[in-house]
Amino acid sequence: MKRTRFISLRLLCFVVGISIFILQISCTHQYSNIDTKSKNIEAQLVISLTKKIADAIPQATAASGNCSVASPSFSTLKNAGIELSCGSCHNDTLLRGGLSVTSYNSVKNVTESTDPNAATIYRNVLPNAKMYSNTTQAINEALYCWIKGGANP
Question: Which residue would you say has higher pLDDT here, 58 or 122?
Answer without folding.
Answer: 122
